[in-house]
Each structure stands twice: as structure tokens, then as C-alpha cells.
Amino acid sequence: MKTTKSILLISWFLACGFAAAADNHGHAPHWEYEGKAGPAQWGNLEKDFVTCKLGGEQSPIDISTKATEKAKLPAIKTSYNASAGELVNNGHTIQINLADGGSAAVPSGSYKLLQFHFHTPSEEKIDGKNFPLVAHMVHKNDAGNLAVIGVLFKQGQENKALKDIFAALPAKEGKEALKQNFDATTLLPANMGYYAFKGSLTTPPC
């Protein structure tokens, strides 16, 4: 798919359960995006997943542009590095782990970039509509809390930043090293305006 970068979303939240979410990909308890182990049942699959049905600030969300509040939020400041990394097919998504990806400063503080991964179509919606693709850039601070910068993509001209990654996507579950260092700055759009909200992980344990 040819994509062009579009809108930014920022969500920040406590990181309780983040390690469990990483460990559960491809392992019991099994969860899926549809069927008997789909989102409607996530909260019943495992006691640690109960937040999936009880959480009050559960992501993803549908952003209503008419209901958003305009605010004088600080500009996003990124200090990303060209870093070595690995491509991971975890059975649910394609994820790129970065050894030293740098950091980003968002309204809730400064966070180190750990990885980014994709969802297609986008999990988040704007005015009820999905985008063809979203990249979730996952960051973590010294207190163990997370901030995710979501980059929504429109379909358009070939995206040079993602071309090499898409060409090397693992077809089966597993890992392989990136052939060259990757600078996450290339994922960001020229216009760094954004929507910000408190949220959660979008997959179990939510």
C-alpha cells in the first residue's frame, strides 16, 4: 500500500501490564481481533485482561472534531536517532524494536522511544472514519509510564520511510535484524499539530 503521512495522535497512560502485553503476543491466553477470542471477549479470557471490559479510559477512541477542546499545548519535541533494530512478526502485528531510538517530549513529559508497530486499518477513528494505516510509536519514561504517538496515514504517493520496512516484512512469526539503521523522525508528518488524550493499550491487557 502506498501511504502518505497525515495526522498525529498522542495518548499517555500508566504502563501497568505493558510487559504482560508484550509477552502474551502469540502465547496463551490466545486473543484475536475477531471471533470467539475477539475484542468483545478480551475481558473474559484472563483475569489480567479484566480492564478490557471495565476500563474507563480505554483506547482506541473515535475523535469527534466538533467535541474536541482547543488548547495551547506545547509543541512535540523529538530527539530521535538512527538506530539499529529488529523486525518482529508477533502474530498480531508487525513491530520494529529500536535499540536506541531516542526520545520525545510531549505534554506529560519526556519519554524514550522503544518501538513502533502498525494497525490496518487504523484503530483510532476521526469523525467515525478509519484511516488506511496507523503507526503507534511507543515511548516509556523513567517512572515506567507510557506515551504513544500515533501517526495516521492517508493513501497516496509511495512512502520512502516505510518502503524498505514493507519490503522486508516477515511472513511468519519471528524476528530478524533491520538491514540498516532506522530514524523514527522519518515517520512524522511536516505538520506536527496533534490531538491529545489519556488512554490505554489497545490490546490485552488493555
Q: What is the secondary structure topology, with strand pairs?
A:
Elements: E1 3-13, H1 18-24, H2 42-45, H3 51-54, E2 62-63, E3 77-80, E4 82-83, E5 85-89, E6 94-98, E7 102-106, E8 109-119, E9 125-126, E10 133-140, E11 146-155, H4 160-167, E12 174-177, E13 182-183, E14 194-198
Parallel strand pairs: 1-14, 2-9
Antiparallel strand pairs: 1-11, 3-7, 4-13, 5-6, 5-12, 6-8, 7-8, 8-10, 10-11
Your description of this structure?
By secondary structure, the protein is mainly beta. It has four helices and 14 strands. A hairpin with a 4-residue loop joins strand 5 (85-89) and strand 6 (94-98). It is globular, with a radius of gyration of 16 Å. The two termini are 29 Å apart.
Provide a count of the helices: 4
Class by alpha and beta content = mainly beta
Order of helices and strands: EHHHEEEEEEEEEEHEEE
Are there runs of 5+ residues with pLDDT below 50, and where?
A: 14-28
User: Kindly, what is the distance between the CA atoms of the first and last residues, rounded to a whole number of angstroms?
Assistant: 29 Å
**Roughly how much helix do the residues carry, as a percent range?**
10-25%
How would the global form be characterised? globular
Beta fraction: 35-45%
Largest sheet: 10 strands, mixed
Number of DSSP E strands: 14
How confident overall, as mean pLDDT? Answer: 83
Cα radius of gyration in angstroms: 16 Å
